[in-house]
Amino acid sequence: MLQKVVRSTIIDAPIERVWAVLRDFNSHAEWHDVVESSRIEGNERGDQVGCVRSFTLKDGNRIREQLLTLSDKDHKSTYCIVEATLPLQRYVATLTLKPVTDGRRTFWHWESTFGTPPGRERELRETVAQGVYEAGFVNLRRYLQQGGDLHGGGNTTSSLPRALPVSTRRVGLSHYGAADVLQPQSGEAAAPRAGEVRIQQRAIGINFIDVYLRRGWIPSLLPVSEASPGVPGMEAAGGVLDVGENVHGFFSGDRVAYLGPVPGAYCGVRSVPAEWVVRLPPAIEDEVSAALLLKGITADCLLHDLGRVQRGTRILVHAAAGGVGLLLCSWARHLGATVVGTVSSEAKARIAREHGCEHVIVTRDYRFADAVQHACGGVDVLVDGLGEAARDENLASLARRGHWISLGQATGALTALSSDMLGAKSLSFSRPVVFDYVSAPGQLAERAQRVWNALAEGAIRTPVIERFSLDAAAQAHARLESRTSIGALVLIA
After folding, report:
1. Is residue 383 part of a domain?
2. Considering 404, 431, 458, which residue would you say is the last residue of a domain?
3. What is the total count of domains within the chain?
4. Pairwise CA distance, residues 136 & 150, whole Å
5. Does residue 421 lie within any of the structural domains?
6. CA distances from residue 90 to 109, 114, 116 in whole angstroms, order as listed
7. How many angstroms separate the CA atoms of 152 and 27, rounded?
8. Are 331 and 350 in contact (CB under 8 A)?
9. Helices within 202-314 (DSSP H only)
10. Residue 25's CATH number
């Protein structure tokens, strides 16, 4: 007959902090006193479903266990014994966490079923109940109270001492130019200063501002030299390694993302101000965040703050099959707008239509105004990432009282628009910088949540993602500039 052992407790720590430790299948060697040593076989990650941990207990027994399920959404994992010197037969255990009402404590439920040899039922039940579960509760409480997880132990992101610099890979440039000026380098990530969070980055977003920086179009933002190469990149996602003084709400192992107005994201480890950082929901993978967060918040600002898009609004989106373009088309259509987009190929036109672009104009020579006027009689909102080459066509595409939002300058900087040009149709013009829209406390988290909500509601879709290794950043830039990419490009650190 199968034995069943059930134990529960309350841990005085937020669920995110407890789960950051327990989701690592190999963390028990850091916090559980009965474990002498442990390793994950085959060099797999400790959160990889199917991985096997092989460990030795301090009493000499040896056990191999396999991770069967892992749910960040439910804070739940299941595992089984595949081989052991202890006679625990068909052993399957489930670990579940739930937040306590006050949000700062965690309910931990641990249960298992197993068979035993005749006559050893009570002995082995007590071994599991007291020696494993109850002792584990005590051990983890002590571990968290002593800040063990904040020193990097017990999570998959690091086993680093607190407040020490660490080596990291990065991609930088010593002079401005074409994509091939981006070169992999070895560097060092300083320990977090007061108010900073140090992050082990797993996915890094590529945005057109990175191209502008590499070309030297904004030298004040990214100064470069042989002695001090510049590192591009404005956003990334990963796990918290450690935090500096006066940082509250982030713990080692937390899955987070960030975006900020200072470049430097093309690296493996980075310390950034805590106000740039948001915790990621379990349903949002690192790569999705890197592909979506900055572009999604940009789309939110353009549609709601600047364009005030609603039912009946006519909007023109250039590069409609790009990272921001697809989000704008889908979200604007969800809001009831008439969406017109320009793309450079029929393949991109199909993608744009699938994402809500009602009228798609295929053009490689930046001629589109006649088609826009034919489609909808001119647009109320125009989102322009093209720049100078599309200047006159943009003016011709706008309806009276239209709003021209200049988002980028892929074809070169836009020459000045005179007041007479704008006054001819009572046009307005804006040149927003998205970081100014998330600069006040709480704004980043609020806008990020709006993006995640839009994704959950179907207002936007999970973007098409092209992945490149960090060392292949030059190839990723060349791909972005080729006008052949669709969706978002992400570097994997």
Report:
1. yes
2. 431
3. 3
4. 19
5. yes
6. 20, 5, 9
7. 11
8. no
9. 208-215, 286-300
10. 3.30.530.20
| Residue 416, SS3 per DSSP | coil
Name the H helices within 283-418.
Answer: 286-300, 323-334, 346-354, 369-376, 391-397
Q: How many CB atoms lie within 10 A of CB 348?
A: 25
Residue 432: phi, psi to the nearest 5? -75, 150
In tens, the pLDDT along 297-352 reads: 999 999 999 999 999 999 999 999 999 999 999 999 999 999 999 999 999 999 99
- Using an 8 Å Cβ cutoff, are 189 and 158 in contact? no
For CA atoms 134, 136, 137, 142, give the dihedral sign.
positive
Rounded Cα gap, residues 260 and 196, in angstroms? 13
Residues 146 and 26 in one domain: yes
Strands annotated E in 415-464? 428-430
**Using a CB cutoff of 8 Å and minimum separation of 24, what contacts does 428-433 make?**
428/401, 428/402, 428/403, 428/404, 429/403, 429/404, 429/405, 430/306, 430/403, 430/404, 430/405, 430/406, 431/405, 431/406, 432/301, 432/302, 432/306, 432/405, 432/407, 433/261
pLDDT digits (tens, 9 = 90+) for 392-420: 999 999 999 999 999 988 888 888 888 99
Domain that holds residue 395: 311-431
- Check whether residue 17 and residue 141 sit in a common domain: yes
C-alpha Rg value of the chain to the nearest Å: 27
Same-domain status, 139 and 175:
no
CATH number at 355 reads 3.40.50.720
